[in-house]
Design goal:
Layout (H helix, E strand, L loop, with lengths): L1 H11 L8 E6 L7 E7 L6 E7 L7 H19 L4 H7 L3 E2 L8 E2 L5 E6 L13 H17 L18 H14 L9 H9 L1 H4 L1 H7 L6 E3 L8 E3 L5 E4 L6 E3 L1 H12 L17 H15 L5 H27 L12 H18 L1 H13 L1
Antiparallel strand pairs: 1-2, 2-3, 3-6, 4-6, 5-6, 7-10, 8-9
Helix pairs in contact: 4-9, 4-10, 5-11, 9-11, 10-13, 11-12
Bound molecules: adenosine-5'-diphosphate (ADP) and magnesium ion (MG) (2 copies).
């Protein structure tokens, strides 16, 4: 709309770009930030990617942008030998403001940043082919690999406890205690199911506490639309670095699998439709491990399967917590929406349990490939 367009044009003019700005149009299908494509009238026809950062989710914009800069500098260092053109295609490139800053703030208190638009790329919301799944795995495997020699402590924990299951279950317990909308009694079976699995779901945390898992730099939003592919569906660039922070590799693996392996939508009400797409799991695992096996420790490789169980479970815990708190966090489209989402994630956990030995075998084969 016009308001947004004007805000986008105004913000775009703060950045250090060549030529005159011709347009700022809404772009992409992200759900977190507001993204615009900015075109200019320069001879090289360069376009830019402008984003209004969601500062309700990311309150520490300065920390976030510093994290992004540190990560991009490191990635670019790794790729420098390939030449500037390749580097600009394979990594995000920040455009500073005219004052040399990484972002700017407008009169309404919104924060903006700009990247080069990476041309001739595609991003998909849903994985459809095994070739795409393989590329997705490769992309995040390579991303982790390239960052495996950057000290995790250099980055701030931009969303504290984001994948910490103790924290998430703690929130669920508080919501049960309060029972603010009187729903606890009606979900007792689901709560039993969740707490029955608590110990298993703590495996990654336990391994980490025993010092078995190195703290790495992970992406933490490994959705498929955060990988840009070229026209042949080969990996080109990992994007959306807002959540990059210290973490364990299995969280990225598990979250990618959570959406890729599910044949249905995240809020499918008909549980019979929620079955596993094993070929896509296999392709993602093969792509991921083709890159990651170079740096993963044995314990990390063993942790991957725990991540696969943990991430849908954790998402169920979050949906159910919101349901018990009266639907204050996730947008709902009907009264029981969060309960339906909870059940859909738990059905996925159930299916994963049913096929566990098959998944183990695929992972073993991919490691040894
Ligand atoms: P969100 O956090 O809202 O998901 P993203 O950073 O993922 O925001 O951007 C939203 C979408 O915009 C992406 O899914 C992708 O399609 C597109 N996009 C983002 N950055 C670039 C870029 N540098 N070049 C081309 N397309 C991009
Ligand atoms: Mg995104
Ligand atoms: Mg994002």
């Amino acid at each position: 709309d016009d308001n947004n367009n004007t805000a986008g044009l105004n913000a775009a003019s703060q950045f250090d770009i060549q030529g005159e700005i011709v347009d700022a149009k809404r772009f992409g299908s992200g759900h977190i930030n507001d993204t615009f494509c900015v075109s200019t009238n320069t001879e090289d026809g360069r376009s830019y990617l402008l984003q209004r950062i969601n500062h309700h989710i990311f309150s520490n914009v300065d920390g976030l942008m510093n994290n992004t800069k540190i990560v991009l500098d490191h990635l670019k260092g790794k790729l420098a030998h390939l030449g500037e053109e390749r580097v600009e295609k394979s990594t995000l490139t920040l455009i500073p403001t005219k004052e040399g800053k990484l972002y700017c703030k407008d009169e309404e208190g919104n924060y903006w940043r700009m990247f080069l638009l990476i041309e001739d790329t595609k991003s998909y919301d849903i994985v459809e082919t095994t070739a795409q799944a393989y590329s997705g795995g490769q992309a995040f495997g390579e991303f982790q690999k390239q960052l495996s020699d950057l000290e995790a402590e250099k980055l701030v924990e931009i969303l504290p406890n984001f994948h910490n299951i103790d924290f998430r279950l703690g929130n669920l317990r508080k919501a049960i205690e309060k029972d603010s909308v009187g729903r606890v009694k009606s979900v007792q079976d689901i709560l039993d199911y969740i707490f029955d699995r608590e110990e298993r779901m703590r495996t990654i945390l336990d391994m980490a506490q025993r010092g078995e898992l190195p703290l790495r730099i992970t992406h933490n939003d490994t959705k498929f639309n955060n990988v840009l592919l070229d026209q042949e569906d080969n990996v080109q660039c990992v994007i959306d670095l807002d959540t990059v922070m210290p973490g364990y590799v299995a969280y990225d693996f598990g979250d990618a699998i959570r959406t890729i392996i599910n044949s249905a939508a995240e809020d499918e009400a008909d549980k019979t439709k929620i079955v596993l797409n094993i070929p896509l799991f296999k392709a993602y695992a093969e792509g991921y491990l083709s890159e990651a096996k170079e740096f993963l420790t044995e314990a990390e490789t063993a942790s991957l399967l725990h991540g696969v169980f943990l991430l849908p479970y954790m998402q169920a815990v979050r949906f159910l917590t919101d349901y018990l708190e009266g639907d204050t966090y996730y947008k709902i489209h009907y009264p029981e929406h969060n309960l339906v989402r909870t059940n859909a994630q738990l059905k996925l956990v159930q299916e994963l349990e049913k096929h566990e030995s098959e998944l183990v075998e695929i992972l073993e084969q991919s490691v040894n490939a």
